[in-house]
Amino acid sequence: MSDTYSIGVDLGGTNLRIASYDGGIDFLDSILLPTRLAEGPERVVRDMCEGINTLRSGHNGGRRLIGIGIGSPGPMMLPEGTLRNPPNLPGWDGFKLRHAIESALGTPIAIECDANLAALAEQKIGAGKTHSVSSLCVLTLGTGVGSGLILRGRIWHGVTGMGGEAGHIIVQDEGGAACGCGGYGCLEQYASASAVLRMARERIPDLSPATAQDVALLARSGDARAVSIFDTVGHSLAIALTSLVNTLNLPMYLLGGGVCEAWDLFAPTMFRDLFQRSYIYRLTRPDKLAPSSLEGNKTYILGAQLGPGAGLLGACLLPYQSKALQSGMGEELLVHQ
């Protein structure tokens, strides 16, 4: 049993998930709370901090708290931890999230965009560990489309902490759907669960699906209109992946989130269009798309391994990563731990 533990928080538009963790693959304890967005960010921060303190008090007799990691929807200025017009947190533009949490808790925290943390978890204890890959990109196809980049075992932030916002790559120029970011035609509007439901309302007016999975069931029953929706998802992902593959030339791109439950419906179009569009992918496509062991110098697009808990796991891992960096343990530890 480890003598240390961390606390992680996954701030979502619907739920707040808070957990304690000691470095394994399971949480020690966890709390699930509704995200009370309608009551403003201060109320949400208060709920978050109460949950953190509940977990802290539960470990007073044993392990030492190594740190607290927070994952939030972006974009977010780092290291300040100031949110900048987050599409999935309306009304939070300019909110100083790091300052608010640290003031309430009376202790420093580590903070990151949630998709970066999902990518960190996948690299450290998910697909990256399984296949000994230290550099990868993760796209999370959930309510929106988040993305995170890990380069040589470390999160890539860009200049201001906003690196890796691949959910807002433009995939449809003419007449593209309006996005919460203020743009039009973003990947998020064509490959997220919300996008699937919007396209279902537009293309199948006699259907009232509650979830993207309902649309997938209709597609599997042979409804051509529902099938066309997942063709659009696959085509849009191929456009975005073309930009990522051609620019980054990483060995692994992982797709996670609820939409991936319909992998069989969108993946054929995605792989076909990616092969046509990306000359880097044509040069590096593996013989097998999802082998048990990876070939060297190939480009893999795979399903993420950790499921919906990846962001929370990443938040719990973040304090351990931060401590390793601060103590100068070196890149080799970060890549191979």
Q: Could you explain how this protein is built, in words?
A:
The chain is an alpha/beta fold. The protein folds into two domains: 4-114 and 309-336, Nucleotidyltransferase, domain 5 (2-Layer Sandwich); 127-305, 2-Layer Sandwich (Nucleotidyltransferase, domain 5). It has twelve helices and twelve strands. Strands 3-2-1-4-7 form a five-stranded mixed sheet, sandwiched between helices. It has a five-stranded mixed sheet with strand order 10-9-8-11-12. Strand 8 and strand 9 form a beta hairpin. The longest helix has 25 residues, at 224-248. It starts with a strand and ends with a helix. The model is unreliable at 328-337 (pLDDT under 50).
CATH class label of the largest domain: Alpha Beta
Helix-strand pattern: EEEHEEEHEHHEEEHHHHEHHEHH
Beta-strand share of residues: 15-25%
User: How many runs of DSSP E, i.e. beta strands?
Assistant: 12
- Biggest sheet descriptor: 5 strands, mixed
Strand line-up across the major sheet: 3-2-1-4-7
The radius of gyration computed from the alpha-carbon positions, rounded to a whole number of angstroms, is: 20 Å
The average pLDDT score comes to: 91
Decide which structural class fits the backbone.
alpha/beta
Total individual domains: 2
